[in-house]
Specification:
It is a single chain. This protein has a domain of about 160 residues. Helix content is about 25%, strand content about 20%. The protein is built from 3 helices and 11 strands; from the N terminus they run H-E-E-E-E-E-H-E-E-E-E-E-H-E. Strands 7-5-6-9-10 form a 5-stranded mixed beta sheet. Strands 1-2-3-4 form a 4-stranded antiparallel beta sheet, with no helix packed on it. It has a two-stranded antiparallel sheet with strand order 8-11. Strand 1 and strand 2 form a beta hairpin. The model has no long low-confidence stretch (mean pLDDT about 90).
Length: about 260
């Protein structure tokens, strides 16, 4: 008995046509999905950066108006242990039987130890600074605000010294050629960090669809598209692709 047309299966040509349509649809949808994912990461990053500013503001309220120091280093008398006390982590290097061991604790900004995952940029996939920090991706304005024990000015700035908080970067997407960086640097030397060399290592990562996120002292966060690489010749040649400074001069870093 002959099969009716209603019970006839799909022909090979029909199956192939459906598969071609599906492949075309997936090809059209994937870029849109990637775009939506990247946008979502950027929005989450902006939220985390704003939370970093809130933590810094809370810190100034507890410490006579001072922002947290970017870093300071202390060593034991026999140099068997070195502690780097930074805004994000306290890193201890110890030598045991000739082996160097790293341990990590919450840094100056996170005294309670809560919400450490805020420090992880959702768009950053590279290595951290010390080779073991659990969350990474952001840096802190060291040139003008955080300073540090080895800087020309070691004492951090006070919040009321920031004359234009809406235009002074506090935290951002830190990145250079070897991975994350936690110490944001202005492109040109200033009285606060005359002693520092290696500005290429304090650049921002333009990793959110070729843009970078930055949070300012007034609490707002923004996405900036313009990437600047003007700095000293020896530093300029070291600036990695997709990284750079926030402004061609120090205007977005300066307290003024």
């Amino acid at each position: 008995m002959a099969l009716s047309r209603k019970s006839r299966g799909f022909t090979l040509a029909e199956v192939l046509a459906v598969l071609v349509c599906l492949v075309l649809l997936v090809g059209l949808l994937l870029p849109a999905l990637r775009q939506a994912r990247a946008q979502g990461q950027s929005v989450l990053c902006l939220s985390k950066l704003r939370q970093c500013v809130l933590a810094a503001s809370a810190y100034t309220g507890c410490y006579d108006g001072f922002y947290p120091m970017a870093y300071r280093t202390a060593a034991s008398s026999d140099w068997s242990q070195i502690r780097t006390i930074a805004w994000d982590y306290i890193t201890t290097q110890s030598w045991v039987d000739g082996r160097r061991i790293y341990t990590y604790e919450p840094g100056i900004l996170w005294q309670s130890g809560d919400s450490m995952e805020i420090q992880q940029c959702p768009g950053f996939r590279g290595p951290d600074n010390a080779g073991g920090e659990p969350f990474t991706g952001y840096n802190y304005n060291t040139s003008y605000i955080g300073h540090g024990s080895a800087e020309s000015i070691s004492e951090p700035a006070k919040y009321y010294q920031v004359r234009n908080p809406a235009q002074t970067a506090l935290f951002g997407d830190g990145q250079y050629g070897e991975g994350a960086n936690k110490f944001m640097r202005a492109p040109w030397a200033n009285p606060g960090d005359w002693s520092f060399s290696g500005r290429y290592a304090g650049t921002q990562g333009f990793r959110h669809r070729r843009k970078t996120n930055v949070a300012f002292c007034d609490g707002h966060a923004d996405t900036l598209a313009d990437r600047y690489t003007e700095t000293y010749p020896e530093d300029k040649k070291m600036i990695a692709e997709g990284t750079g400074f926030l402004s061609p001069d120090n205007r977005l870093y300066d307290l003024n």
